[in-house]
Amino acid sequence: SAPQSKLASAAGFVKKLHDLAVHKKGCTDLQEVPNEDEKSWSYGATLQTDSSFTSPCSWAAADPSTFLIRGENYLKDHRKIKADGTLMQMIGADWLRSNKREDNLAARPCSLVQKYAAGGGPEFFFVVNIQFPGTTKYTLALYYVIKTPLEDNPLLHKFVNGDDAFRNSRFKLIPYISKGSWIVKQSVGKTACLLGRALEVNYYRGRNYLEIQIDVGSSTVATGVASLVLGYLNNLVIEMAFLIQGETEEELPEFLLGTCRLNHLDVSKSVVVKK
């Protein structure tokens, strides 16, 4: 599958999905923190997007070339190369707070995923649900979509339909603090991490989606790093890339599933999930 890099096409698709996310009668499980325009949202659209990277508490897709991936000859020379695109488009994000874990967001009737599924479209959604521990539990969910058949990419197809052991052995995160405190940059680093080997990860497979739920609180080390990050959050620009690790010649070079850039998130602007 060729990387989907046409900005105009991506922008149009984002607008289409956001139009679908208008809050409908009966979808009352979200309560936004009061703001200037008192908007109500659906799951997948509670965090605003800003491709200019200027608005605080917003998301955008990060530049793929920021991240290094295994090259075509990695098994021989162990060299990594700059990524030149992503397989999926980022189309939404949630920034939530609750007194409990918020699991399987994609299955909720008020989610972008379900609204799009109701239209019978062929799109497949990939949701990364990152859960932070604490008395108040914060959830960061990132939504990606691919419009070509999964079968066109054998490794992705195997990952989506495989067992959890295989998924845990292959799903990688590359973090990067592009703006912020030196101590946070040093703590987070920029090394790819197999999340399933470091944290508790659960997977929810729906008809048109796979949601990956990452429990940051399952690791003492990760909890410490997360607490540090949350403490500096307003002053940080956080970039991430997600990919499936390639381990054979047929699976190389690697490809990025998607990227994100989070601009100066603010815990006070997270959306409250009603009990």
Automatic annotation (TrEMBL):
InterPro entries: EDR2-like, EDR2_C
A Pfam family that the UniProt record links to this protein: EDR2_C
All residue ranges annotated as the Protein ENHANCED DISEASE RESISTANCE 2 C-terminal domain in the record: 59-266
Signal peptide from the UniProt entry: none
Superkingdom of the source species: Eukaryota
Coiled coil (residue ranges): none
The protein's name: Protein ENHANCED DISEASE RESISTANCE 2 C-terminal domain-containing protein
Source organism of the structure: Citrus sinensis (Sweet orange)
